[in-house]
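Subgroup meeting minutes
Present: P.N., E.W., G.H.
Scribe: E.W.

1. P.N. recapped why we're keeping a running log of single-chain structure predictions: easier to compare across weeks, and new members can see raw inputs and outputs side by side.
2. G.H. added today's entry (253 aa).
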Amino acid sequence: MDPLLDFTGKVAVITGAAQGFGQLLAQELAKRGAKLVISDINKTGVLKVADDIAATGASVIAMACDVSKNDDCKAMVATAIENFGRVDIGVNNAGVAHEFMPLHEIDESIMDSQFAINVKGVQFGMRHQIQQMLQQGEGAILNVSSMAGISGAARGSAYAMAKHAVIGLTKTGAVEYGRNNIRINAICPFFTLTPMVTNFADQEQQKRMSKGAPMNRLGEPKEIVAMMLMMLSPANTYMTGQCIAIDGGVSAQ
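Output recorded in log:
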């Protein structure tokens, strides 16, 4: 196996792994030798993903996790340590969107939900992942932000608010823990054909959304996960504090 994509023996924890990026990343890491602890608020879904991965012979544990609860995030890391002895990779992927609406119609309940899951959920994950990585003397964390985290997002202001906060957490963590050999980066996808998009946008809406990209289409999950693998690669040892846009050219405009 190419050393760039060899994760043999690495222990990864991934939130939001019942579908979308989390599910596909878990499958790809397992193919490359990683041991996994995967979680989702959808326990039935994440157990099914784990069963499929385990059938390939990979080591995987699935558990329910509400990332808005600190104790759930702590338990996930503790499970990895108890079963595999360490945490090499933390992927804070779980997140939620909200219905498209203008900023002046966003109420407090929407902002509270966005902050609880998309911001606190990332910080809780980082908190416990970093504590273990400090003991190990190394580790890599990847947070899932969005193009809405590095630009404006018309009719998605609360989501943009939260995803901008993920960028702040990522850059600050990279500065604080770089000397400890802990790399912390974020990925910022444009609209991608995961359930988060397809559940909110019908075919006509997706066509309109795709016109915002010079490549004139939405992203495919496998395209985003390919970059996630590169960012997490054990050979990628000098990259930290970066927020990488995978956007079909949107940010070049």
